[in-house]
Write a structure and sequence with these properties.
It is a single chain. β3 and β4 form a beta hairpin. The protein has a single domain, classed as Porin. It is mainly β. The chain contains one helix and twelve strands, in the order αββββββββββββ.
Length: about 230
């Protein structure tokens, strides 16, 4: 819902800016850039990941302490039409979340209340980029699509579970994505700031070997959600 509100705000702001400033004639940089069938680039950025929990029985919420992570990757852009592009954006994303549990008689020490969950994702999104008409050297757009990842830190195959201090998640979660950004046509290259929401559709939790585990026994589904802020250079 927040992403949809942000997109509506963005579109409204774009219309206002277009009416007040962008429609005045200006010299256009690299007028043939968007006519290329295939173009390439790279991106750098930041992320913040959270977890969404579904519980079997009501309980005190597991708290998630988020941190700011880092993204880096490549872009392959295929022009489908004047206003639509297909994009592949393989990259790496680094993040970390700390899970903080409420006190439970089954926990033997204060250390049992916290589980560190680092993640190193090999990130493989396939996106549609829907562009507006270019306004001088500015072109807003929205994106949506799907992605899969390989989490190199998942511990999915590790036989040790939380009783040995290992919180395990699946290696290959799947996501859907939606976002928006603005292409800025500079003199030598195209620079694009963008923001995107990513939402896992699969259950990522690998449950402990004991069914009534205080860490995983009451969780019916664990799924990631996050925000990416990327800066693209093409």
């Amino acid at each position: 819902m927040r992403i949809l509100i942000a997109i509506l705000f963005f579109l409204t702001l774009t219309s206002t800016v277009q009416a007040q400033w962008l429609t005045r004639p200006r010299v256009q940089n690299d007028q043939n850039f968007d006519k290329k069938l295939i173009s390439w680039g790279y991106y750098l950025g930041f992320n913040s990941f959270d977890y969404n929990f579904d519980y079997i029985n009501d309980q005190e919420e597991i708290q998630v302490k988020k941190s700011v992570g880092f993204n880096v990757g490549l872009i392959g852009n295929l022009r489908l039409s004047e206003y639509v592009d297909l994009r592949l954006e393989p990259g790496l994303s680094f993040t970390r979340r700390d899970l903080i549990y409420a006190a439970d008689p089954q926990f033997d020490s204060p250390d049992d209340l916290i589980r560190e969950v680092p993640a190193t994702y090999i990130y493989l999104p396939l996106l549609l980029k829907v562009n507006t008409k270019r306004l001088n050297n500015v072109r807003p757009f929205v994106t949506f699509g799907v992605s899969t990842t390989v989490n190199l830190s998942s511990n999915e195959k590790n036989p040790d579970d939380n009783f040995a201090g290992q919180f395990r998640t699946t290696t290959n979660p799947f996501f859907y994505e939606v976002g928006f950004g603005i292409d800025l046509y500079l003199f030598y290259f195209k620079f694009t700031p963008s923001i995107r929401g990513v939402f896992a559709v699969s259950d990522e939790l690998v449950r402990d070997n004991v069914s009534n585990s205080p860490w995983t026994g009451n969780i019916s589904k664990l799924s990631s959600r996050g925000v990416f802020i990327n800066f693209t250079f093409q």
